[in-house]
Amino acid sequence: MKTPNPIIGVNGTEGRKLKIAGGNYRIIISGKQTDGEYAVIEMSVPPGAGPNPHSHADFTETFFVLEGEVSFKSELGSYIAKKGSFVNIPKGGIVHSFKNISNEPAKLLCTVTPAGLDDLFEEIAEYLETASSNTENETKEKLNSLFEKYGQQMFPADYLD
Fold this sequence. Notes:
This protein has helices at residues 117-130, 136-149, and strands spanning 16-20, 23-29, 39-45, 54-55, 60-67, 69-74, 77-82, 86-89, 96-100, 106-113, 153-154. The protein is of the alpha+beta class. It has one domain (18-154): Jelly Rolls, CATH 2.60.120. It is globular.
């Protein structure tokens, strides 16, 4: 019989903190702690910020809005998510993006199944901490190679307009 995994408790000050996409992310529980089954990431997104359109065919991504108002867009439409709203981005690679449309930082609780985007976020944050001397082109090439490594495809900022 397989030994059950232990219960994991994480308090409000624990978890890996990252500066990414103009905001502050905290990996509350990583795929390393869940045998790759899922990861939970708290995202603090500044007003007007959010990721460019992107897709990831092998991940389900869910968002629970803790604070703020966030516009989610996809190829199939858009949704304004306010505090208490839940958004599901299913597996399959639908192109999507989100943007904080409130005047305060929006706070999102993101769960990704299976885990993997948490590793991408860690690698991007580590790279950006040391990339200040790189050219814009070098940075773009490195980020694109990381996106490819984790099965993420990026699209131009105006792709869903």
